[in-house]
Amino acid sequence: MNTKKRIIGICGSASRNSGNLAILKYISELGKSEMELEIIADLTEFPHYKTELTDENVPKKITDFRNKISCSDGIIICTPEYVFSIPSGLKNILEWCVSTTVFSDKPVGLITASASGEKGHEELKLIMKTIQTYFTDDTTLLIQGIKGKASKDGEIIDGKTETEIHKLIKSFKELTK
């Protein structure tokens, strides 16, 4: 019996109708026969990281997030670059997990979709390597000029980008086997 993989999609964008969210929705539709993608789209719902709460009194929202990550078969992060870095909301939820092992050995797909994105993409890969996730060059993707590649309606409107996303998803599925 072939059961669907439980995947958590994290949208790093603070915009409601971002190209990053469109990509995650596209991936969800694309892989719906093989994976169940739960998208976490609003990172503003998570409390700001406080070191003194990492061991005791961890907020329920964070405990629930950690449990989702821990119980998943893999994670796909799709994020823009803000000021040559990853967005603060994404950094915040990752910081809540640094002192845990919830990301350790998890297969991840990493997509940076932004105007440029090079620095943010490198930073995202470094952070994910530091928290011991597992990814390959084929499960990472930098999409530059995203505003011309995804519509406001959430459709991927660039053929090359569509092909690259398909390739990433194929590699990500292999990684989660």
From TrEMBL:
Domain NADPH-dependent FMN reductase-like: 6-135
Source superkingdom: Bacteria
Annotated InterPro entries: Flavoprotein-like_sf, FMN_Rdtase-like_dom, NAD(P)H-dep_reductase
SUPFAM superfamilies: Flavoproteins
Designated name of the protein: NAD(P)H-dependent oxidoreductase
Organism: Galbibacter pacificus
Lineage summary: Bacteria, Pseudomonadati, Bacteroidota, Flavobacteriia, Flavobacteriales
